[in-house]
Design brief:
Number of helices of chain A: 12
Order of helices and strands of chain A: HHHHHHHHHHHEEEEEHEEEEEEE
CATH architecture of the largest domain in chain A: Sandwich
Number of domains of chain B: 1
Radius of gyration of chain B: 20 Å
CATH superfamily of the largest domain in chain A: Galactose-binding domain-like
Number of helices of chain B: 2
Strand order of the largest sheet of chain B: 1-32-31-30
CATH topology of the largest domain in chain A: Jelly Rolls
Largest sheet of chain A: 6 strands, antiparallel
Structural class of chain B: mainly beta
Strand content of chain B: 35-45%
Number of strands of chain B: 32
Structural class of chain A: alpha+beta
Number of strands of chain A: 12
Oligomer: heterodimer
CATH architecture of chain B: 7 Propeller
Shape of chain B: globular
Distance between the termini of chain B: 42 Å
Strand order of the largest sheet of chain A: 4-1-6-11-8-9
Helix content of chain A: 40-55%
Largest sheet of chain B: 4 strands, antiparallel
């Protein structure tokens, strides 16, 4: 009799626990849905604030479910979700309760998950076991997470440096080449390129980053008084490369240029002439083997507009506030086949020495910074390597 | 309930849990840089009068703020400066109470001297508001629980500056004031502190601007106004509505910010200009203007009826606040200064960018009474609260107290 009662009690408890578990999972899903409804200009904040407070009470077993929610989260809502993950993990670790390490490892191993979430998990696992980087990073050299990849590359660079200093040049060369192939951050690329140069290896930097080298240029058009930025000059709606248009001072025609700069810089002061209050259009054709989302990454000290296949991707009116690699990141789409990239580069009339640059560099890459090359790109032997 | 007690409670509710020992925003609660009653050392070494020192996980030009026994600071890290940290330390022993990180949703590029964590955070005594060059605004409760997160560059995509944004937040009443101005798209917004939603949004002059909003206290908190400075002038607006109260239309500097004292506004314009708002008038009365008092990067300080202004190459000029007449000029340690000077207990505290702290006695002649070299780059404005001064570098936060 007693054993039957115990059995009923055990089954009852199991059903209750299972029900509670489903209820918790359902609550987590509901709260995540509310948080993901956050939109621009604080839309949905009051509801999301309450949902986050509830979500942050979830136990550690909910972490994998919450992490998966990062996969399709917007940049805004990803931060709300991150906050819940941090709060739960901090609370559990402070109380010396375990995190679901096996589930977190599985999440990290699946590179389809959100790169930021995977990096967050990598750091949680490292808090649990400080030897995690030693164990995992050697196999993460080509990881979609830029930060994980960076840490993995850093280790290879250290190893390569030790081999170089130990006069094991062939081994060092192999390591530096491995590091360069994986590196996406310019500081790491520069270290590898410098050492490879010393080891007799020439690197096509422009290809590594995916800079466009082949451009057609037309200009100058008038930008006196910075009034040309909103003006629709003929190249913006006429893609005839043999046409002649009225420029600032005279008729202008398209001309070809090919930059041999390792960072893809096209110096308009040199390629054309030193103009002030002027606008030049740069046009490139890019052949993509498939339809794909890409980053167009631009660096310029000048005001600019960017069109892809006739659609305005972004425009920015800012003069001489610096120019750098990946200064602007514009998310866009390439169609399969030929794509036309058109860039409007505006120079103002400032007379200071530091305000004379009129230039641009543009590359096409994925979200991690990995170069996406046009299938009609010239081979490396036409490209000069570094500066 | 006795009426007096009711009134007292109402005041407490209106002012949150703000205490005398708080330093809630850039240059303190009134953006003055002055903690009149604080007693902090005029001499310290690497160990003497250093209550504690903690490591920071990233860079920052932002100054610390102090809310009761919590010292809060922001930092940014990562190759692209896209990790945004908010850290909270125990004022007593420097123990880290909590840390939160957020991913930047806007541009993080900046001049090498600056970084993503350039603006100083703010608090209303109940909440913490962090702001970054990325234009992300984070609201946390005092225990680090996220209340809301705004990405202003997500909402207004051309609000950014390739040299970085620097304007700090201020809270006036129950409105958080954010100024984000640049060459392409400039805005100022008043956000509801509870929800983060816009109470108002103003289009601002299209010009790069690194100054911070300043509160001008009125006779009562209902009369407080917010001063928005730019290269075009200085605009006073109602904090809750953004409605313009008055305007000064001569060009102002775009790096050092205005300061107020006894109802007078001292704005970096044609050197330094003293303005007195007039009741019912749309423009203030100019009291005086001095080209000699020309702050370069640090904002000016008004303390004990004197103005302290740091010009180029570290030349400090002191003048009478009522007349603008120069009292003295003194070359501080030669070089660059970014941190705004602060004052307490009859002394003015100044930090060179190389980390050298210099303490001057406030008075009619220049007198340096203490120096100490931290030997680390210091660009952020210190906080003074509870008889202690908190100073940050890119790597450390110190508490200086006896």
């Amino acid at each position: 009799m007693r054993s039957r009662a115990n059995w009923i009690l055990a089954v009852g408890c199991s059903v209750l626990c299972l029900s509670l578990s489903f209820a918790v999972a359902a609550d987590v899903a509901t709260n995540l849905k509310t948080i993901k409804s956050v939109g621009s200009e604080a839309k949905g904040h009051p509801q999301a604030t309450k949902a986050l407070a509830e979500l942050a009470k979830a136990d550690a077993k909910s972490l994998p479910q919450i992490l998966v929610a990062l996969d399709d989260a917007s940049p805004l809502t990803a931060n709300w979700i991150r906050s819940a993950i941090e709060t739960i993990a901090d609370r559990e670790l402070s109380a010396k309760r375990p995190l679901p390490v096996a589930d977190l490892e599985s999440y990290l191993a699946d590179t389809k998950h959100d790169p930021r979430g995977r990096r967050l998990v990598f750091e949680l696992l490292t808090r649990v076991d400080p030897k995690t980087p030693d164990r995992l990073l050697p196999g993460m050299l080509n990881d979609p997470s830029v930060e994980i990849r960076r840490d993995a590359v850093a280790r290879v660079l250290i190893r390569a440096g030790e081999l170089f200093d130990g006069n094991k040049k062939d081994d060092a060369k192999s390591e530096y080449q491995q590091a360069l192939t994986a590196a996406r951050d310019d500081d790491q690329v520069q270290v590898a390129v410098k050492r490879l140069g010393e080891l007799g290896v020439t690197v096509d930097l422009s290809r590594h980053f995916g800079f466009i080298q082949d451009w057609a240029l037309i200009g100058p058009f008038d930008n006196t008084g910075k009034l040309g930025f909103p003006v629709v000059f003929p190249p913006e709606n006429n893609d005839n490369l043999t046409a002649e248009f009225q420029g600032k001072d005279q008729k202008v025609r398209w001309s070809k240029t090919f930059t041999t700069d390792g960072y893809g810089v096209v110096d308009l002061n040199k390629v054309q002439a030193h103009h002030k209050g002027a606008i030049t259009y740069a046009r490139a054709e890019f052949t993509s083997d498939k339809s794909q989302d890409v980053d167009f990454r631009l660096g310029t000290p000048n005001s600019w507009k960017l069109w892809v296949n006739g659609e305005l991707a972004f425009a920015r009116e800012e003069y001489h506030r610096g120019a750098s690699l990946d200064q602007y990141r514009v998310r866009g789409k390439l169609k399969a086949g030929k794509n036309v990239i058109l860039l409007k580069v505006c120079q103002n009339e400032q007379t200071e020495m530091w305000a004379q640059r009129w230039q641009f560099q543009l590359r096409v890459c994925d979200a991690t910074g990995t170069a996406i090359l046009s299938s009609t790109r010239p081979t490396s032997d036409k490209a000069v390597t570094s500066r | 309930m006795p009426r007096m007690l009711t009134t007292l409670l109402a005041i407490l509710v209106l002012t949150g849990s703000v205490g005398a020992a708080d330093w809630l925003q850039f240059r303190g609660n009134d953006n003055s840089g002055v903690a009149a009653d604080a007693k902090i050392p005029t001499l310290w070494t690497d160990t003497q009068n250093i209550a504690w020192k903690v490591d920071l996980p990233g860079r920052g030009l932002s100054g610390p703020i102090v809310i009761g026994d919590r010292v809060v600071i922001t930092a940014s890290s990562g190759f692209n400066q896209d990790r945004q940290h908010v850290l909270c330390f125990d004022a007593k022993d420097g123990r880290q109470r909590w840390q939160r990180q957020f991913w930047a949703t806007g541009r993080t590029l900046s001049h090498p001297k600056m970084c993503n964590a350039t603006p100083t955070p703010a608090s209303d005594g109940e909440r913490i508001f962090a702001f970054y060059s990325s234009n992300d605004v984070v609201c946390l409760d005092l225990d680090g629980n996220l209340q809301w997160f705004r990405g202003l560059t997500q909402d207004y995509p051309n609000v950014s500056n390739s040299l970085g944004m620097a304007s700090s937040l201020i809270v006036v009443g129950d409105t958080l004031i954010v100024q984000a101005e640049n060459d392409s798209e400039s805005i100022a917004v008043g956000l509801d502190v509870v929800t983060g939603s816009n109470r108002w949004k103003l289009d601002r002059p299209i010009q790069a601007n690194w100054t911070s909003p300043v509160v001008l206290r009125g006779k009562s908190s209902a009369d407080d106004v917010v001063l928005l400075q730019s290269g075009k002038g200085l605009t006073a607006v109602e904090p809750r509505t953004g409605k313009q109260v008055w305007e000064y239309t001569s060009g102002c500097e775009t790096i050092p910010s205005a300061v107020t004292s006894n109802g007078v506004v001292y704005v970096p314009s044609s050197g330094l200009t003293a303005l007195e708002p007039q009741v019912g008038s749309s423009s203030p009365k100019m009291l005086w203007q001095s080209a000699r008092l020309r702050p370069v990067t640090p904002s000016p300080l008004i303390y004990e009826d004197r103005i302290y202004s740091i010009g180029s190459a570290g030349v400090m000029t002191c003048a009478d606040a009522k007349s603008g007449e120069q009292l003295w000029q003194f070359r501080l340690k030669n070089g660059l200064y970014s941190a705004s000077p602060v004052a307490a207990n009859g002394h003015v505290y100044v930090f060179h960018e190389d980390g050298t702290g210099q303490v001057l006695k406030s008075g009619d002649k220049a007198e340096v009474v203490g120096t100490h070299e931290f030997k680390e780059t210091i660009l952020g404005t210190p906080a003074i609260a509870g008889n202690a001064m908190y100073v940050r570098s890119d790597g450390n936060l110190w508490k200086i107290s006896q």
